[in-house]
Structures are given as C-alpha cells and as structure tokens.
Amino acid sequence: MAIIDRVKSAWNAFRNTEPEVYSPQYGSTSSYSQSHSRPAFGFYNERSIVSAIYNRIAIDVADLPIYHILMDELGRYKSHVGSQLNYCLTIEPNIDQAPRAFRQDVVMNLFSSGCVAIVPVDTTINPETGQFDIDSLRAGEIKEWYPKHVKVDLYNEEKGLRQEVVLEKRFVAIIENPLYAVMNEPNSTLQRLIRKLSLLDAIDEQSASGKLDIIIQLPYVIKSEARKAQAEQRREDIEFQLKGSKYGIAYTEATEKITQLNRPAENNLMSQVEYLVNMLYGQLGITEDVMNGTADEAAMINYNNRTVKPIVESIVEGMQRSFLGPRNLSNDERILYFKDPFKLVSAADFAEIADKFTRNEILSSNEIRGYMGIPPSDDPKADQLVNSNINPSVPTDSVVTPKLKRQLKAAETTLRKESQNGS
User: Which of 312, 305, 268 lies closest to 61 in space, CA to CA?
Assistant: First the structure.
C-alpha cells in the first residue's frame, strides 16, 4: 500500500472520541507519577500471596515468544511472515511496551478480571470494512458485554489515560482464563484465599492498633452520678500515668482489679490459609519449589504442561481467530508460540542430546551452537545435516550387514571349492 493511501485509510480505535486540549510539547494537559497502561489490581490481591502467584505465572508465559508464521503444505512451520503484525509481536507492540512486557500485561489482566481483550489500536484500514494489517496492540479489561460488541477499558496513548471504547468482537482477540473456575469464580479457591487473607490482615491490624483494651474494676458500685464522675476521673488518672511514663507503667489501688481484653485470640485462620494455599497450588499445578525457583525438571514439566501451556495457547488461538482473516488463513498463515526444549537441561545432558541430534541428522552443528549462544561456524559443513562420525569417502549404502557377511562368506567358500575341483 502506498504511503499516501496508507495515511488516508489508517484507523485508530480512539479516533471518534471527544476533542481534547493537548500540550504542544508533550501531547497532554497533565502528567502522572506512573503509567496508566499497567493493570490495576484489587487491594488484597496486591498485598497478598496472590500477586506473587500472578506474577510468577505471567513471567513464565511471557517467556514464550509468539510469531506470525507461514506453514508448509503439510502443516509444519516454514518461516516467519514479514508483516506488521509480526513486528508488533516481536519488536514493538506499542509505544510503551516491549513484546515480553506486553505478553506479561496480557496475562496479568487475564488473571485479574478473568478475561482480557487484545485490541488492534492502530490498523491500516477500518477493521469493519475488510482485511487489515495491525500497527499497534494493547491489552484492556472488558467492562461490558453486548451481542456483537464489547466495551473495553483501554489505555489511550494519545491522551495518556485509560478510556472506555466500544469495539466489535470479531476483530478484538477476547481471551478467557482457562483457569477461571479456580481463580475467578466467586467461590473459587483463590477467591476464598483472598477473603481469608483479608480477615487475617484485619485481625493483625486490630491487635497492633496500640490500644490496651482494659477494664478497671473499682471497689465500689457505680450507680450515682458522683460515683460515675469519680470512676471517670480514675480512668483519666491511669491514662495519664501510662501516657506520661517512659515504659508505660501505672499504679492502682490494692482493691482495684484490671482485666486486659486484647490478648491474642485463638483462631484457626492461619491453618485455613495454609490449607487453601496448598489446595490452590495443587489446582494450578504449582509447587512451592516452582515459586522459589528450586523445582526439578519433572516438576517444571508438569507445571509448564498444566499451567503455562493452556494459558499461552488460549492467547495464541484468540489472536489467530481475530487477527488473521480468511485470506491469511487460506495462505497457510498462523500465529504460533515457540518453547525452548533445552531450557531445563544441564550442560552434561545437553552435550549428550547434541551428539544424538547431530548424529541422527536432526539438527545441524550451527543450530546446536545457536542454542548454546555461540556464533555460527563459517564451515559449510556446519549448516548441513550430516553425521560427522561416518567417513564421507565410504558411501552409506556399502555398509555390510551380518546377513550379507554370511552370504558373502558362503559364496566365497563355494568359489573356493569350485576352483579346487577345476584344478
């Protein structure tokens, strides 16, 4: 598309909003202490173990790169597509975020509200009119649902604030949390854990409020106004002693009795919290070793298959459904994520795997060097699928099998006997 035509047909999700007065230097009338493009969490999500679980899973999902690729006639990966969508997925989704930060933002919004919308903010043409290419992507929270539209709370980079905009469902990638029943249902394990943590925090704050909560039993009956005034005066005297004392010490008469009420209340909230945390870990496929980074290979494989893989596949399928139209799909274009198979392998095991892969002509030497972070070799043989353990001067079809050896030996014996009889 020519540059002039591209500018004329370009579309922006916030174009038809009300006019705004902008600063000529920075593009807005006000500034903010932090970016409004970041997802906002609930109060107790932010203060508890829940935010740590969100962040751990989001980091692991964001570690898987997503590409716009081309498949061959057999449905196998062939090459990357040099499209603007692939540029957004691999280089710059928007002006504020890198691809990894964008993927993490998508997952955090997904966990926070149970559903996230990936919106193509800037496109080559209006998505409602036909096939389009994407120039920028944003993740937003869905506020309202309509039969064919959704209202999305989205960050407007032109104004520097979040704004609600109504968009069609067919060109917005709507991603639902595959772990919704565990994380976002009103009575799910995670929501119950959040409520228990809020109760535990309230009790802790009450215990640490600084109040003594004591009752003074005076040696006389308080019924008349004079006795009430006398009791009030006695209470003020004890308060004055405690407030003015360096160590908070006061004296009382021998006939007075003091009862303290703010003793630690015995409850089973902590045991319930521990029970819910263990249950949540089991339902999410997470272990404590995964959270603190000491999990072995088997635990990480289980975690990646049960937790990370369903989430990233939901994201890929949602973008593929909305961003690739019938024309691109008919041209064998897809959106795919890639996982490093050697990420959890030790150096000794990787050496053994590299030998098997090169010997069986699955990967070339330069491809193995790429996984190790070593620059490729200039030797042309390093880019070929060859077995370096076989002498290239001996053709592979001349390898003698045991059966062929027996046949050759029998033929040699027969020829020897015939030669002896002839002589």
Answer: 312
Tell me: the pLDDT tens digits for 339-348? 887 777 788 8
- Measure the CA dihedral 154/157/160/161, to 10°: -10
Tokens of 266: 């015995």
Contacts of 297 (CB under 8 A, 6+ apart): 344, 345
Model confidence, pTM: 0.70
Q: Which two tokens stand for residue 26?
A: 């920075």
C-alpha to C-alpha distance for 415 and 418, rounded to whole angstroms: 5
DSSP letter string over 271-295? HHHHHHHHHHHHHHT--HHHHHT--
pLDDT for position 86: 92
The 10s digit of each residue's pLDDT in 306-360 is: 999 999 999 999 999 989 888 888 888 999 998 887 777 788 888 888 888 888 8
Distance CA 193, CA 101 (A): 28
pLDDT tens, residue by residue, 67-83: 999 988 888 888 889 88
Please tell me the predicted confidence (pLDDT) of residue 118. Answer: 93
Q: What is the C-alpha separation between 59 and 53, in angstroms, rounded?
A: 10
Burial class of 411 by CB neighbour count within 10 A (0 to 12, 13 to 18, 19+)? exposed
> Would the pLDDT of 30 be above 60?
no
For residue 254, what are its two tokens? 């021998």
